[in-house]
Every structure is written in structure tokens, then in C-alpha cells.
């Protein structure tokens, strides 16, 4: 049935000129459907990268190297201002993963980084920002939260995030070592900038669909898969966007039964549908109206599975 729905989506995309580069669907172990409207090349998956970061944190936690209650200030005391606020001192890894750091603004997003915001030291820049709200109290989407979480992981495991993910996920999942945006000091951006082909991007969904196993090998603990994919914090409702229905640990919740997704700008999406035993991915160009693609995916594929 999924092949039929996906083929209908492909035909709709062709007939209406949907701005889409590729679509794919798979179960826990294989690709069931894959179609390309553009050459099959690695592309920037933007904030879909955040969900790979989540997997890395889960692995490090299982290794006893990191805890959700760990505090950012304890990891980077040398970057703290002379008189840090109590709120700054109380930011936990959990707050960063749920986009509730308390900074209260979207920091270090793609355009900001291109403009040189935070240069040359993102850690010093963020620890000098005012923490406007109580950490953990309100969702505020910010790539800076993911960047800070990634730096905490690096400090805990003693290696760059890219190396850690390569050793723990990319190599056993046959993804290779992806091109990945780094900050001015050479730290991979925990919140974006990874380049992957759609089949490799979708492997994260397959891994989580299988409860943390990939082709029978345990890579992520099942308990972390459940926690990361569960609603950990409410997101502000948007009547025009049915996809805004809560956030986990660097995963968005989705409006289909028990579903969730890794979500990158312009339409780099992997939706995990546990009840159906399927994962569906799409990659889209930076130009065009992704809302049209989203509606078509919803109406033709995701709401029918």
C-alpha cells in the first residue's frame, strides 16, 4: 500500500510542479520506495541534523558519560561571565534538548551564522546572552540550544561530535563521514549543516523505528528512543500548521498515531510512523513553497497510512 501512496505523490508532484527533490519510504531494514526528481547527491539537511545529535546524546548517556541533568555552566566554567545569573547557572542539558534554555530568542540560526553572528566563539557569545526566562519553562526554537548541547557532548566524550557519530552511528549504518558545517573553531554544528543523500538521511528514522537497532545491531538504547520521540514539552499551537504538536529531545511530534519526525528547513523531513512500521522521508530545494509539499504529503501519504 505504501508504494501506491508514494507513487500517487510522485504523480501529483509531477502534475502540479511541487518543489521536491526526492521521496523515500522504508521499514526497519530496507528501502521500500525511492524516487528522485533531481540527481541523487548529498544535500544540506539543515535541522534534521538535530535528531542525529539526539541519538548521539542518547548513546553517550547509555555509556554513563552524560546526563540530562548535567548543567551547561559546569561544563564550561571558563566561559562564564564574572557574575553569572542564577538562570544561566541552572540551564541543563535537558533544557537545551527541549529548546527551553530560557534565552528566549532564536540564536545562531543559519542566516545569523552566515552573517558572522557569534564569531569567533559561539560558546562565549551564548554565555554572554541574557537568560530571560526560567530554563525548562517555555519552548523557544533556537539552533543555539542544539549547538550548546553538542558542545556538552563533545566535552563529555572527549572528541568532536562528528567523530563520535561516525564511530557510533555513521560507520555501522554505512553512512560514511558526511560533509558537515563547523563553527569558526572547528566544532560541528549540532543544530544543522549536515549533508546526506535521502536514503542515508532516512536511516535515522529506520534506526528509531526499530527501537534503536540497525540491521540487528543495537546502536541506541530503546529507552532513549522512547524518551526522545515522546512529547517532552508543549509547542505553541498554530491553527494553520497541523504539524506543530509538541517536541521531544530534538524531535518534533507529528499528528499521526504515535508519530514523530526529524525536521529540517525547506523540507528535509523524516517521519517515523511506528504503528504502520514505516518511515517516510522527503528532501526539497531551498526555493519553492514547502507548504504545498507538506499538504500533499499529508493528504496523499501520511494521513492514509
Q: How would you describe this structure to a colleague?
A:
With 305 residues, the protein is of the alpha+beta class. 36% of the residues lie in helices and 12% in strands. It has helices spanning 2-16, 49-62, 72-75, 86-90, 93-97, 110-114, 122-127, 143-157, 161-170, 198-209, 222-229, 290-301; strands at residues 22-26, 31-36, 43-44, 195-196, 213-214, 217-218, 252-253, 260-264, 268-273, 278-283. The mean pLDDT is 97.
Helix and strand content put the structural class at: alpha+beta
Percentage of residues assigned to helices: 25-40%
Relative strand content: 5-15%
Q: Give the beta-strand count.
A: 10
The strands making up the biggest β-sheet line up spatially as 2-1-10-9-8-7
Any idea what the radius of gyration is?
19 Å
N-to-C order of helices and strands? HEEEHHHHHHHHEHEEHEEEEH
Main beta-sheet strand count, sense and barrel state: 6 strands, antiparallel
Indicate the mean pLDDT: 97
> Number of helix segments?
12
Oligomer: single chain
* Bulk shape: globular
Which ranges are low-confidence, i.e. pLDDT below 50, for 5 or more consecutive residues? Answer: none
Distance between the termini: 8 Å
Keywords:
305 residues; alpha+beta; two-stranded antiparallel sheet
What is the gist of this entry?
The chain is of the alpha+beta class and 305 residues long.
Architecture blueprint of SSEs:
Layout lengths: L1 H15 L5 E5 L4 E6 L6 E2 L4 H14 L9 H4 L10 H5 L2 H5 L12 H5 L7 H6 L15 H15 L3 H10 L24 E2 L1 H12 L3 E2 L2 E2 L3 H8 L22 E2 L6 E5 L3 E6 L4 E6 L6 H12 L4
Helix pairs in contact: 1-12, 2-8, 2-9
Amino acid at each position: 500500500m505504501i508504494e501506491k501512496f508514494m507513487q500517487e505523490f510522485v504523480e501529483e508532484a509531477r502534475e502540479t510542479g511541487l518543489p521536491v527533490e526526492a521521496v523515500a519510504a522504508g521499514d526497519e531494514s530496507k528501502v521500500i520506495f525511492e524516487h528522485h526528481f533531481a540527481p541523487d547527491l548529498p544535500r544540506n539537511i539543515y535541522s534534521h541534523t538535530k535528531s542525529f545529535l539526539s541519538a548521539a546524546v542518547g548513546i553517550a548517556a547509555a555509556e554513563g558519560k552524560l546526563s540530562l541533568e548535567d548543567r551547561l555552566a559546569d561544563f564550561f566554567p571558563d566561559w562564564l561571565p564574572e557574575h553569572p545569573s542564577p538562570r544561566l547557572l541552572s540551564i541543563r542539558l535537558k533544557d537545551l534538548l527541549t529548546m527551553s534554555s530560557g534565552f528566549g530568542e532564536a540564536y545562531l540560526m543559519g542566516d545569523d551564522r552566515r552573517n558572522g553572528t557569534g564569531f569567533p566563539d559561539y560558546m562565549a557569545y551564548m554565555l554572554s546572552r541574557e537568560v530571560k526566562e526560567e530554563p525548562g519553562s517555555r519552548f523557544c526554537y533556537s539552533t543555539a540550544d542544539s549547538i550548546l548541547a553538542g558542545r556538552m557532548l563533545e566535552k563529555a566524550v572527549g572528541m568532536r561530535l562528528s567523530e563520535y557519530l561516525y564511530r557510533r552511528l555513521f560507520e555501522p549504518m554505512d553512512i560514511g563521514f558526511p560533509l558537515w558545517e563547523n563553527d569558526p573553531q572547528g566544532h560541528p554544528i549540532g543544530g544543522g549543516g549536515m549533508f546526506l543523500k535521502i536514503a542515508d538521511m532516512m536511516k535515522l528514522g529506520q534506526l528509531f523505528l526499530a527501537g534503536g537497532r540497525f540491521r540487528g545491531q543495537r546502536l541506541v538504547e530503546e529507552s532513549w528512543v522512547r524518551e526522545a520521540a515522546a512529547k517532552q514539552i508543549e509547542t505553541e499551537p498554530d491553527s494553520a500548521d497541523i504539524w506543530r504538536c509538541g517536541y521531544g529531545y530534538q524531535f518534533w511530534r507529528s499528528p499521526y498515531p504515535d508519530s514523530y519526525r526529524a525536521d529540517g528547513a525547506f523540507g528535509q523531513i523524516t517521519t517515523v510512523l511506528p504503528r504502520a512500521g514505516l518511515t517516510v522521508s522527503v528532501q526539497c530545494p531551498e526555493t519553492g513553497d514547502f507548504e504545498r509539499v507538506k499538504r500533499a504529503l499529508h493528504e496523499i501519504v501520511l494521513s492514509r497510512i
